[in-house]
UniProtKB/TrEMBL annotation:
Protein name stated in the entry: Carboxyl transferase domain protein
Keyword line: Transferase
Keyword Nuclease: no
Highest taxon of source: Bacteria
A single MF term (Gene Ontology): transferase activity
Residue ranges of every copy of the CoA carboxyltransferase C-terminal domain listed in the record: 70-198
Species annotation: Mycobacterium intracellulare 1956
Length: 198
């Protein structure tokens, strides 16, 4: 998991290498800025500053250390009004997540990449879980290639640490994945996301 501050840069080469390759002259801060890297899925969490980065690292690692003895459940009445009665309307999936998991336990990963899927570490009654939920605000809930890649990576993380996964699924169909991107890549992404790993 890469945690970075807004002023960080992550790049394969520096200004001299880029200029030497005939690609132009760039200042160091223009190479791999976090604003770009978070949208590319490189950065999992963006911290306000270094102290916040340490706090995020501790929080992230805590989900792999077992259950908590103290927790607070959300008000169950919150869940009643999350999904609109008119099923053609989009809704905020983050509100749906917060309505079913422990208060303050959501740690969303790679929020700016594959925005059709929310991936988060959460707790329910103090027990850690992975959670995936598709967002109806992006493509009406259809899962595109980036969302499928992100979900597949997250499911592999959860499997490697033995975390059970909660899935909130409200998607119109899977046709979008196969019609908007090269078929081979998208089919592989979708298969990876939803296959049982052995």
């Amino acid at each position: 998991m890469i945690i970075a501050t807004p002023d960080a840069n992550i790049g394969m080469g520096g200004p001299a290498m880029i200029e030497g390759g005939g690609l132009g002259v760039y200042p160091p801060e223009a190479i791999g800025p976090i604003g770009v890297q978070r949208r590319n899925g490189v950065v999992g969490l963006v911290a306000r500053d270094e102290a916040h980065a340490v706090a995020l690292a501790k929080q992230y690692l805590s989900y792999f250390q077992g259950s908590l003895g103290e927790w607070e459940a959300p008000d169950p009445r919150l869940a009643r009004h999350v999904v609109p009665q008119n099923r053609l309307r989009a809704y905020d999936v983050h509100r749906a997540i917060e309505a079913i998991v422990d208060v303050g336990s959501v740690l969303q990963l790679r929020a700016d990449y594959g925005v059709g899927i929310v991936t988060a570490l959460v707790r329910v009654e103090g027990v850690p879980y992975g959670l995936i939920a598709n967002s109806t605000h992006h493509l009406g809930g259809a899962i595109d290639a980036e969302a499928a890649d992100k979900a597949g990576d997250f499911l592999a993380l959860c499997e490697s640490f033995g975390l059970p996964v909660i899935s909130l699924c409200d998607t119109p169909a899977s046709w979008w994945v196969l019609t908007r991107r090269p078929r081979r890549r998208c089919a592989a992404s979708a298969a990876c996301s939803y296959s049982a790993r052995g």
